[in-house]
Design goal:
Strand content of chain B: 5-15%
Structural class of chain A: alpha/beta
Strand order of the largest sheet of chain A: 4-1-3-2-5-6
Shape of chain B: rod-shaped
Shape of chain A: globular
Number of helices of chain B: 10
Order of helices and strands of chain B: EHEHEHEHEHHEEEHEEEHHH
Number of strands of chain B: 11
Oligomer: heterodimer
Amino acid sequence: MSTLQLVYVSEANPDLANEEIIEILKASQEKNHAQKISGLLLYQDHHFMQLIEGEESAVLTLFDRIAEDKRHRNVVVVGRFAAESPSMPTWAMAYFSPENPEGNGKKHHFVMSREDLLELCESFPIDIGALFWEAINGIYPTSIDHPPH
Amino acid sequence: MNIFAVSGNSVSRIMLRSSLGEEAEVVLFDSAEKCLEKLGESLPDLIVSFADLPGMDAHAFCHALKETIAWQDIPFVLLTADGSLGARLKAHETGVDDCIVVPYAIEELRHRIRALGRHLEKRKLVTNIASDAEALTSALLSSIDEYATLVKFLRTLNSAMDNNDVARSIHDLLACYYLTGTLLISTGDSETVSSADGIGLPKDFSVMHHLRNMDRIFEFQQRCIFNFPCTSLLIHNMPTDQAELCGRLRDHLAIAIESADKKVEALHLGRQHAHVQGNLAELLVDIRKTVNTYVDQQNATRYQGSKTVGDLLQQLNASFTSLGLSETLEEELHEMIQAAAYKLLALTDNPENSTHALEELERRLQELLEPETVAINPASQPTEQMPSANNSSIEIW
């Protein structure tokens, strides 16, 4: 079964509280698991970058719903890839804030650390890894034509 | 908890470490072969493996674990993209303890592993309890066996006929307890030192005599000495490395040697009693002979006396004819001599004489030696009819 891997970036609404962001992350985990969608959601500096991967129609349906969510804006697809199987075995999240720059913390125990995310970037397919590596370093692509490194 | 995580995919390995690393120590392997190699050095609490592995696949991996006694109890969690019923059933037939479909939810993975961890703890607790129960049962059975050996010894001791039997019982008891020792038995009439090998050497005597001056029970390293009035036992190899066993054996031996001491004393008193009885029996025979001889002599004396008096009276009667005495005078002389003769014979017929006293003494001795039988004194039954002074058959006229 072929897998569609979709990467997008967006900006969080300025008045979105940290607790609401955490709720977004938790809710997405439940829904995506039900649809057998795996991926990775990164939040940093009011920006979201998300990898959604799975069966094509399920991925596109999910993306449409995400694009319409009012809690973020300027949703742009920056990567679209076909693969034989998903890169991620699960749905994971990385959440970095000024108070929690490394992403660790037992309070948000389902969230990955910066160290794990960097290591993940090196193991991802090169195009996907490059996108997330840049995002971790504060570089957010603005379109799908943004050249990968 | 220590977890071995196996995946041929680096992203999957990183995610397993990230998902489980907060609650467990996670060691990552990129193949089943490398994980099996590590199992030879250390054992984890749980193994998580993706189904799709390079080289040996996860089912063969799980099968290899379950076929090895040292590894078969390690819980195995399989992560597989094939969630079909057939795939899950095959996994369980292989021995997989839990099967999770990929993509998995991190929280679900954590919960299932925690559940397996709790189950593992309970199983370890049950194993420990069973092990403790087994150890306790073994100790109890050993203790029962020790008591049975002691009871058997006491029964054997009860039938001992001499000090050699007592010594043999003690050394047999020591052998049953896997002990070796030297035994001293000392009574008024003998003293022996022995070991399982036989009679002791002269140096053993001096050692045991020296040790008899110590306390009732004295211990030094692996040696233990038990001192009682007639017996001393020196044990050479008490199991001091096993405190409970050593304590039990010490108690058993104290009972055994005290019982043996009492038996030795009883045997000694028995021998003394038998010696005295023997002497009394000989004395009785001598007394009986003496009494018989005395009675015979008394009877002979009485008979001779009666005969002599009878002859004298006959001679007097014969001499009266030549004397030409009157009939009245003859009768007076006759009665006077007869009266004197009766008085003389009565001296030997005194019922309170020593013959009766000796016969009474003999009867009492006989009763002392043989209380169930009453002695029949041959001297009390005359072997021939001896004439008595009271017997009117003495013809004097």
